[in-house]
Write a structure and sequence with these properties.
Blueprint: E1 3-5, H1 7-14, H2 18-27, E2 32-35, H3 36-47, H4 52-63, E3 68-69, H5 73-89, H6 95-107, E4 110-112, H7 116-119, E5 126-127
Parallel strand pairs: 1-2, 1-4, 2-3, 4-5
Helix pairs in contact: 1-2, 3-4, 5-6
Length: 131
């Protein structure tokens, strides 16, 4: 496993956007996963989307190949440190993003996201940069 994929790219893959399909297919050779937080964010989109039944089927298909990384105490401790550092610097971001970052850092992976404005605030987080 090498990459944690953020909700934006997963949503685009589920919507069959070609750029997301290509990227996630290419990265899957090195291993991709999602965080439990992304799992929840995607299900929110499914439940309140146009076709929840079809969207849930497509997401379940995606999850056959992509593991969901759980949250646990060490990740939540890292979350607390990151959140405190961001708050002290006046750079706080949403808790879901901090949880995704803490999960990615804990496992030593690279985050694949388009939300660079938030995630670049976390110095120890490795962000995917296309070649």
């Amino acid at each position: 496993m090498t990459y944690v994929v953020d909700s934006d790219w997963v949503a685009d893959w589920l919507a069959e956007r070609p750029q997301a399909t290509r990227l996630l297919t290419d990265l899957s050779t090195d291993g991709i996963a999602i965080s439990l937080v992304t799992y929840g964010e995607i299900y929110e989109g499914i439940y309140y989307g146009r076709d929840p039944i079809r969207a849930a089927q497509v997401f379940r298909q995606f999850l056959r190949e992509v593991p969901v990384l759980p949250l646990h105490r060490l990740i939540l401790q890292r979350f607390a440190r990151i959140r405190g550092d961001l708050r002290r610097c006046g750079l706080i971001i949403g808790d879901p993003d901090i949880l995704i970052a803490a999960t990615t850092i804990h496992y030593g992976y690279t985050l694949v996201t388009r939300n660079r404005a938030h995630f670049e605030r976390i110095p120890e987080l490795q962000l995917y940069r296309p070649s």
